[in-house]
Specification:
CATH architecture of the largest domain: 3-Layer(aba) Sandwich
Helix content: 25-40%
Strand content: 15-25%
Number of strands: 15
Distance between the termini: 14 Å
Strand order of the largest sheet: 3-2-1-5-6-8-9
Radius of gyration: 22 Å
CATH topology of the largest domain: Rossmann fold
Number of domains: 2
């Protein structure tokens, strides 16, 4: 009997939580049980080299590589229809902006772009009918319309109550999927608040991480650009420089920390990249925290930094389920996260991490409590050392769909 044939699609493999989750999933899949194809819209990103050799990486298709390039570049290269579709999507998003009365992060732009560009794109591996096709990141039109498969699954990585979408427009797309995978119980619950008629399609499949690989990579080097001193407390955060991650408020939190512990120097390092970098740097200057909040930029291997830090902090406004929090737990570091809506699905407060209030002053006070309480930090680390946070068994849920 022929093995089931699985296709997974994602935009690219830049540094990010979704991309790390995909590498974890690919590493966990047993290609003796299923043949696995991977289609990336663009073959780029620091994590490309971590695609397992057992996975069949499909060739790039030129039109797909243009989806996130500047519109001027599309015109220059002759992709007139894609450029026109992108401009039309921008216009539709602009005229609908008044509906975003809660001023949430606008995700409707991505849906509109995908809605109008997908019809122009060629089919993906059209000679193959897959047993299961997975769209690993929204928007999900491409797998729906450009892949032949007996079953199709769309993945949820965020809290849908914290982003702006036009639910009535998106519902028909979601409804055509056989299943919708959410990375946590809370992410699933939030999604069904927005799309209650889809509740029967939603199941939870947590992010899959390779404990052995993460620990191995954590030993590759000692980060010289994050020096550790016994006279300083080293905090670390990782994520895109974007509104959900809330790094723009880290300078104010750090300033409050310094006021609360004047005899101890705090160094808060942030690994990442993204559109908000200029804003974060401006906030660092305004708070006069240049010596205490340090942007490290991209790092292809962040694990030695996690291993070296004293405390890992995720100060987000909202999350689906943070990959880097799980990675820090795998490396047995004390973890602090803010009380965003899905926080309790990520951390068992006081057992495997600490949840602190979102308010800047109270957030700082919560971090100081962890810094000052060595026994608490040791209890957290001991618990993490005795528990597995890799979640490799989650892959069985996909085999059942096959």
């Amino acid at each position: 009997m022929a093995k089931p044939h699985l296709l997974i699609c994602l935009h690219y493999l830049e540094l990010g939580g979704v991309e790390a989750a995909l590498i974890g999933l690919l590493s966990a899949l047993d290609t003796k049980r299923a043949e696995v194809d991977l289609f990336l819209y663009d073959h780029r990103g620091e994590l490309m080299s971590f695609v397992p050799s057992t996975i069949n990486l499909l060739p790039a298709i030129p039109a797909y590589t243009m989806l996130e390039r500047p519109i001027a570049e599309l015109v220059k290269r002759g992709y007139w229809l894609l450029a026109t579709a992108r401009l039309w999507a921008k216009w539709i998003t602009y005229i609908s902006a008044h509906k975003n009365v809660k001023h949430l992060d606008d995700a409707s732009c991505f849906f509109n772009m995908s809605r109008y560009t997908t019809p122009i794109l060629p089919a993906i591996n059209p000679e193959v009918e897959y047993d299961l096709a997975i769209s690993f990141l929204a928007p999900h039109h491409i797998v729906l319309d450009k892949v032949r498969a007996k079953k199709k699954v769309a993945w949820i990585h965020t809290d849908y109550t914290k982003i702006y979408i036009e639910a009535e427009k998106e519902l028909p797309m979601w409804s055509q999927y056989d299943k919708i995978a959410a990375i946590s119980e809370e992410a699933a619950r939030k999604f069904t608040q927005v799309f209650p008629t889809l509740a029967s399609k939603v199941f939870v499949c947590e992010n899959i991480l390779s404990t052995a690989l993460i620990r191995k990579r954590a030993d590759e080097f000692i980060p010289e650009d994050m020096p550790i001193s016994k006279d300083e407390v080293c905090l670390l955060s990782i994520g895109r420089y974007s509104n959900p991650k809330r790094f723009d408020e880290v300078p104010l939190i750090c300033k409050r920390l310094q006021q609360l512990v004047p005899n101890c120097s705090i160094r808060w390092y942030i690994i990442g990249y993204g559109a908000d970098e200029a804003l974060i740097r401006q906030r660092i200057l305004e708070a006069e925290m240049q010596e205490h909040v340090i942007l490290l930029g991209k790092r292809s291997n962040p694990y030695p930094y996690i291993k070296a830090c004293d405390v890992y902090v995720q100060p987000s406004r909202y999350e689906g389920k943070s990959i880097t929090v799980r990675e820090a737990q795998i490396l047995c570091k004390p973890v602090i996260i803010t009380d965003y809506p899905t926080a309790k699905s990520q951390i068992n407060d006081g057992v495997d991490g600490i949840i602190v209030p979102m308010d800047i002053k109270q957030c700082a006070e919560g971090i100081v409590h962890v810094i000052d309480d060595a026994d608490l930090r040791q209890r957290l680390c001991t618990y993490l050392q005795n528990h597995d946070y890799g979640s490799a068994a989650e892959v069985e849920k996909l085999y059942r769909l096959l």
